[in-house]
Amino acid sequence: MSRIRAAFHDPDGARHGGLPTYWWQGAPTGYATRRQLRNQGLRPGGQPIAAQILWSGVGGTRTDLARPKRTATPAQLAAVGKALLARRTCPACHQERPYYIRRSLGQCETCHDTPAPSTPHTREPTTMPANDLLTRALGLADRGWHVFPLRPDDKRPAVRDWETRATTDPDRIRRCWTAGPYGIGIACGPSGLVVIDLDTPKPDQTPPPEWTAPGIHSGADVLAVLCERAGQPYPGDTYTVTTGRGGTHFYFTHPTDGLDLRNTAGTLGWLIDTRAHGGYVVAAGSTASGRPYRLLHNARPRPLPDWLTSLLRPKPLPPQQPVRVAVPDGRRGAYLHAAVQASLDAIAEAKDGTLNKALYGAAVALGQLVAGGALDETTTADLLAQAAIRKGHPERGARNTIRSGFRTGANRPRSVAA
């Protein structure tokens, strides 16, 4: 008789019809079930996995090899609680339910049983077909708007350097959108657009004190108050898109007087952002998290109203006087060489995750000397770019950081006396 039969059968092997003892009398001495171990604050252990499976299959695990039960840390308990809360929270209405949300439905039973209203909050189970997205992208390009692909059902770009790669070329657009159902992004700067983004508050978001007046519940209400204060009509007679969260995008053409408007967040007021140079918007026909962006008013974009332009115009910097650094005669070149070398050393010694910050700081420092006429801009930029590239920084990103640093440094130029 094998060792297992010797441990689990009667000595004669037939007194109980050949049945193992544990079926009628409990586990043999020295063995316990997993439940019995848990009640004693223990867990199976000390045996190979195959042996644990074998013993558990015939009625128990060895108590002499049991180990103390593991106790979860507070962080682990918090993570489990957070995960379970997410399983009980409906993605559609964001309400916690007393049951787990079925993944096959993607929403709670209340939302599933309620007919979907024809509002911007309507959730769609799938993205728009690629052919329809291609048609929309070509239509936007016909307007002269530069488009680029977004990740399917997402607001994030599907390509790097999206502002440079945005295009109106029909052939490039066809090649992109025949490859998959990418969303459509519009690069505002190359397209000559300024988009006013009127948002809606999140459930836990409260207005600041200056916007707590009755009747102000969204960015659209804030814009209406601004119009009333300025004595101007509400600028709703332009190209308009409703967002997935119920907000609104007003499209305007960028001023042509040489002004360079950039993105803003809250400059105009609560829940009002703007997108211009350096920004993009999600085009109508795209979806994000199952919520569609819809064209509300198909009109030619109006010029940005003058009163909004004045509010968005960057404030001029205070006048700056060049700061002259006096050095002994004959040491001007040595001083500049030391300044450049110190900046290059800072880039070379930058640790992981701090390279771009070090590059920006070096560009600001040398940008002051460039603005003061002490250094040549092209040569200095090339030296900084080469140092950053040797550390693994992408060239295009390095050049952008250097230009930004030079612009900041130019606000306080420095010159070196001969």
CATH class of the largest domain: Alpha Beta
The percentage of residues in β strands lies in 5-15%
What is the tally of helical segments?
16
Helix content: 25-40%
What name is given to the CATH topology of the largest domain? Prim-pol fold
- State the distance separating the first and last CA atoms: 103 Å
What is the molecular shape?
A: extended
Q: What structural category do the secondary elements indicate?
A: alpha+beta
Give the biggest sheet.
Answer: 7 strands, mixed
Give the low-pLDDT segments.
1-27, 116-126, 320-328
Mean pLDDT: 80
Number of strands: 18
How would you name the oligomeric state of the polypeptide chains in this document? Answer: single chain
Query: What CATH architecture of the largest domain do you see?
Result: 2-Layer Sandwich
The Rg value, from CA coordinates, equals 34 Å
Count structural domains.
4
Organism: Krasilnikovia cinnamomea
InterPro entries: DNA_primase/pol_bifunc_N, Multihaem_cyt_sf, QRL_CxxC_CxxC
Region (Disordered): 392-418
Pfam family, one: Prim-Pol
Describe the structure.
This is Bifunctional DNA primase/polymerase-like protein. InterPro entries: DNA_primase/pol_bifunc_N, Multihaem_cyt_sf, QRL_CxxC_CxxC. With 418 residues, the chain is of the alpha+beta class. The protein has four domains: 3-68, no CATH class; 74-113, no CATH class; 130-312, Prim-pol fold, CATH 3.30.2250; 323-416. 37% of the residues lie in helices and 15% in strands. The chain contains 16 helices and 18 strands. It has helices at 3-8, 22-25, 34-39, 49-57, 74-88, 109-113, 130-142, 162-165, 170-177, 188-191, 219-230, 306-312, 332-348, 355-371, 377-390, 395-409; strands at residues 31-32, 42-43, 61-62, 67-68, 147-150, 183-187, 193-198, 240-242, 248-253, 264-269, 272-275, 280-282, 287-288, 291-292, 294-297, 302-303, 323-325, 414-416. The strands form six sheets. Strands 7, 8, 9, 10, 11, 15 and 16 form a seven-stranded mixed sheet that branches. A hairpin with a 5-residue loop joins strand 8 (240-242) and strand 9. The longest helix is centred in the last third of the chain and has 17 residues, at 332-348. It is extended. It starts with a helix and ends with a strand. Mean pLDDT is 80; it is low at 1-27, 116-126 and 320-328.
